[in-house]
Structure formats: structure tokens, C-alpha cells
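Following up on my earlier thread - several people asked me to post the actual chain instead of describing it. Fair enough. Here it is, all 300 residues.
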Amino acid sequence: MKTRFIARLIAVLGFLLPSAPTRWLFRLAGHRVGRNTRLPLLSFICANQMELGNDVDIRPFVFISVDRLTIGSSTIVSFGCQIKGNKSFRTGDNCILGAHVIIHCDEDVRLGFYSGVGPRSTIYTHGSFLPVTRGYPALFAEVELEDFVWTGMGVLFLPGSHVETNCIVNPGVVVSGRVLANTRLQLSSEATQRLDQGRLLRFSRRKPEFYHEKMIAEFFEREGLCCKVSSDKKSFETGSGIVFISKPDQDTIEFRRGEQLVASYDIDGFWASESRDPLHCRFIAFARKHYGLILRTRYS
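Reply from S.P.:
Thanks for posting it. Predicted structure:
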């Protein structure tokens, strides 16, 4: 927590300072910054661990906030780029990010040597919005572009995309899965297909107890909380008295601290009771991001 606070403080100071003092601040904080790296005014660059090569050129109005940041030598990050998330972003040498590129690093994103992403392109490592409990998909996966990969304007990379070496992706293409080496991709109207969404949802949707157990267990894991699970897998209790109770017949979850009810969650109706408890707030955010569950607050 202290390390993150210091990183943000230095990033704010760097936003208001020219390159020379910003480089000095980053090095003072233990980051590796190469020679002639440009870190101009009006760019926010924040990472717990940072390594910038020689002659890196970061333009104004860039926003970067990740856990680990590695930018290879002679790489350009054009104006208006946004790179954010809880994981890492890494490029090799001689890379370029065009203007207004958006990269979400909820999982790691890697670019190899001499690779580039064209203007207004987007890289997503997560895909979740609609409720997983209704059968809708949620996907989190890394994205990698290997050496000598170039993408044109307005290309979208979906979670799990992996483009092998020596490829060109022309403008407007949606990339998913693995693209084999020495490939040129371009938009083709013949490549579209209509799918029965209703049938897909009926096939993929599971019973509430499956989602309850998975969601609570994963949330506790991300919070660093060890829990004792009851034999019927309906009660998840920590040593500190935090209890999550699954009620699959009603498709609801209760959050208790000892005997006190802190909050309840109506999964099927997308409602949550009102509470200012920090753990409740984090559970709401977790359910929305990872399971596509937007739980509206039912105010008393």
C-alpha cells in the first residue's frame, strides 16, 4: 500500500514537471530509466515497478497506471494513449503505440521487438458485463503480439489474442485466438456468422449454487482471506467472523459479521442492500468486474 502511494505521488509530480526532474524522481524511487527518455509535462505514468529503456518517447496526454511497466528502447507512446490495469504492460525495443490507443491490463499485455499498434486500436484482456449467472460469458486472458507485428487503425484485440511473429493486421479487424506466423489479416464480409444467442445461453447457464460457490471462493482468495466451507458448501466463514451464506433456492447471498447481517445480494434480481462496509463495497465491485453482475443498491 505504501509503495503504491509513493508511486502515485511521484506520478502526480511528474505530471507537472518536464522530463529531466521526472527522470530524477523515478530513479530516486528505484525505477530504471534509460538515457534520453522523454517524460513530458501532462503525462501521468504510475507503476510499482518500472523499467524504461533508452530513447523512449512518451508524448503528452498519456495515462499509464499498471503494476509493472516495461518499455523497450526507442519506443514511442503517442499522445492520448491510455494503459491501465492491475497487471503488467511490456514492450520490446523499437515499438510504437499510435495515437489514442487503449489497453486494459487486467491480465498481462506483451509486445515483442519492432511491433506496433495503430491509432485508435484497443486491446482488452477482459470481457465481462452481462451477468454470468444468466449464462453470459466472462473471459480474462493475456494478450501477446510477438516480434515484427504491425496493426493498422482501429483494430480490436479480444482477451486471449496471440499474434505470432511477422504478421500484419489491417484496419478494422477483430482479433481473437491465435494468429499464426507470416499471416496478413484483413476484414472480410464473408467471415461473418449469425449465432442463436438464446440457444447459447440455455446451453451455458448453470445452477445458482455453482455461481455462488465460485464467486465467494474467488472473492475470498483475491482478498487474501482463508475460509472454512461448510459440508453443504453454503457457508463460507473466516477466522475473523466474516461469513458469506449462499441461498441458492432464492438465488441470494448474505454477508454477515458474526450474527449481524451486513448486506444481502439478490443475484437474480440484481439488487444489493445498502451498506457502507468496505468489504461489501469491494464485493460489489468484484461481482461487476469479474461476473458481469451489476447489483443496484436498494436504499432503505
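The longest strand covers residues 44-52. That should answer part of your original question.
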